[in-house]
């Protein structure tokens, strides 16, 4: 990929406004041509800038119950690389700080709040919100950003990249699967693409940790021993004489995972984000949205049936939320690159499932060759960093 500097066409801001005025899903938009400070008032943030940029703020609605916020930032004299940045968790905000870091590097950039800025309760029995969060906000952000880029820069060659981890990793695989022609490269870290079974695993860990009540000191002792052990989970747990019988039972449950739906927590990751002590002290399950959306605001994790209720949640949401397609031939056929990264100490999204998914992609997709790369990084947790887009 050869990086060059490009320029906007004449009167590009007026041409963009004309284009936006004709788009039926856009309920509100604002253009801001900034020279010194990018004032992102929607998030009460002011970013200093060294070159002119047109900020395009969009509010969209695809049907009743749908509300999506998207930002596209178009520098006047950028590198010929467009980078869309994914979100995290339940999203609910455009990742403006990540976009600003891209802007400082000279990239054209975009992001979306995924349709959840109104909060978790907005999604209760709201199929429009489920669609937005699952795929629609991300795919439409990608399409409209590409159209705005074409209006702003004409027919100059511009490389398109999607970059995201966790929820952003699911977004990354969503665009590969649903809009494969839009991106030349995708950087995907710790993807939450098997969201229903992942949520089942995360709730399983929360319930078992609350019953085990692991302290920070206890979790640290377990982690230190686990990182040095070659034993299977059953044999390893039996050696932990400083645990109560209840803690041993719950820890073994956590290592095994919810039966038949997901893997267990990787040994050695016990003190990382969403580890034993974190979940033991958490007031509520940090990944509760799918359960609240399915069962209502009074959802009780301790009465949840990990088989029966899991099937109900999957039936309700999986068609929108999972990015589980493994035949990615349309994406690879045009030479686009997919890089997936996972850390072995990630207990939020275990690397085992990412490895399994990547293997299935390699088996079921044509034109994979050098277009698919998986990096499993030892002793790295959920807060991993990506390489620069042009690398």
In short:
By secondary structure, the chain is an alpha/beta fold. It has helices at residues 12-20, 96-104, 127-153, 167-178, 195-212, 216-228, 233-238, 245-256, 276-281, 289-295, 308-321, 329-333, 351-364, and strands at residues 26-34, 37-40, 45-48, 53-60, 68-75, 81-85, 108-112, 159-165, 185-189, 337-343, 372-377.
What does this structure look like?
The protein is 39% helix and 17% strand. It contains 13 helices and 11 strands. It has helices at 12-20, 96-104, 127-153, 167-178, 195-212, 216-228, 233-238, 245-256, 276-281, 289-295, 308-321, 329-333, 351-364, and strands at residues 26-34, 37-40, 45-48, 53-60, 68-75, 81-85, 108-112, 159-165, 185-189, 337-343, 372-377. The strands form 2 sheets. A 9-stranded mixed beta sheet has the order 1-4-5-7-6-8-9-10-11, sandwiched between helices. Strands 2-3 form a two-stranded antiparallel ribbon. A hairpin with a 4-residue loop joins strand 2 and strand 3 (45-48). Helix 1 packs antiparallel against helix 3 (127-153).
Using brief descriptors, characterize the structure shown.
single chain, 391 residues, alpha/beta, two-stranded antiparallel ribbon
């Amino acid at each position: 990929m050869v990086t060059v500097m490009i320029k906007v066409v004449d009167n590009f801001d007026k041409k963009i406004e004309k284009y936006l005025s004709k788009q039926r899903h856009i309920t509100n938009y604002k253009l801001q041509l900034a020279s010194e400070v990018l004032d992102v008032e929607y998030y009460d943030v002011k970013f200093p800038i060294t070159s002119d940029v047109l900020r395009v703020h969009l509010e969209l609605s695809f049907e009743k119950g749908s509300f999506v916020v998207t930002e596209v930032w178009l520098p006047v004299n950028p590198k010929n690389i467009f980078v869309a940045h994914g979100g995290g968790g339940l999203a609910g905000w455009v990742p403006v700080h990540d976009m600003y870091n891209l802007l400082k590097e000279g990239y054209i950039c975009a992001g979306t709040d995924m349709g959840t800025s109104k909060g978790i309760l907005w999604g209760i029995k709201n199929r429009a919100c489920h669609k937005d969060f699952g795929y629609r906000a991300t795919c439409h952000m990608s399409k409209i950003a590409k159209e705005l880029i074409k209006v702003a820069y004409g027919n100059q060659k511009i490389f398109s990249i999607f970059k995201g981890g966790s929820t952003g990793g699911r977004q990354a695989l969503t665009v590969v699967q649903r809009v494969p022609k839009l991106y030349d490269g995708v950087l995907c870290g710790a993807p939450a693409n098997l969201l229903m079974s992942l949520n089942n695993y995360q709730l399983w860990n929360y319930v078992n940790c609350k019953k085990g009540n692991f302290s920070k000191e206890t979790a640290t002792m377990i982690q230190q021993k686990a990182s040095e052990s070659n034993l299977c989970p059953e044999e390893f747990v039996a050696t932990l004489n400083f645990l109560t019988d209840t803690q041993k039972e719950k820890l073994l449950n956590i290592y095994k995972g919810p039966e038949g739906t997901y893997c267990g927590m990787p040994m050695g990751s016990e003190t990382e984000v969403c580890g034993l002590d974190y979940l033991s002290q958490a007031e509520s399950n940090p990944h509760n949205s799918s359960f609240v959306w399915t069962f209502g605001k009074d959802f009780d994790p301790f009465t949840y049936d990990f088989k029966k209720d899991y099937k109900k949640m999957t039936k309700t949401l999986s068609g929108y939320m999972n990015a589980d397609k493994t035949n990615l031939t349309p994406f690879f056929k045009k030479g686009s690159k997919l890089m997936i990264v996972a850390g072995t100490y990630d207990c939020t999204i275990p690397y085992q499932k990412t490895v399994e998914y990547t293997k299935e992609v390699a088996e079921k997709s044509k034109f994979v060759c050098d277009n698919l790369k998986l990096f499993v990084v030892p002793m790295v947790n959920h807060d991993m960093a990506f390489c620069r887009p042009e690398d």
